[in-house]
Amino acid sequence: MDDTHLIELLDTLAEAELTLALAESLTGGALCARLVDVPKASRVLRGGVCTYATPLKATLLGVDSTLLAEKGPVDAEVARQMAQGARRLMGAKLALSTTGVAGPGPAEGHEAGTVHIALAWSKGVVHRELHLTGDRAHIRSGTVNAALELLKETLESGGILDSH
């Protein structure tokens, strides 16, 4: 997402008085950095937490430790719980999460490029599974873009604004 579209997205959130929190794993703070690259992100962005180590997903975000033990961090429900946990932790109306395998090779039984992103708000959580290709940097940047697109598409669908 280019700066112009990102500014428009942040303007939409600000006009609706929606705040945003982030829970990142494979993106390692890149999603948060991408948002603060543009002016006035502080109107919307509450903050982000990088839970790169699997145990931190449980201790900081409240992801079910049994789920993590059984499925590992690369899982749809883990992404959902990460987003819900970030929303609670930071008192935000919305939260995005990223978890997956950036590569270069497989990890946790998943191929590089297997990614789960989620967006949580008061009335629900949406999830998207991605299968990205390319090197580590491309997978990480693709994940950032996909998370922002998920936010944009969900806002445009009316589900968030209708429940706000």
TrEMBL record:
It holds the Pfam family CinA. Residues 9-155 form the CinA C-terminal domain. NCBIfam families: PncC_domain (TIGR00199). This is Competence/damage-inducible protein CinA. The lineage of its organism: Bacteria, Bacillati, Actinomycetota, Actinomycetes, Actinomycetales. InterPro entries: CinA-like_C, CinA_C. The gene is cinA. It comes from the Bacteria. Coiled coil: none annotated.
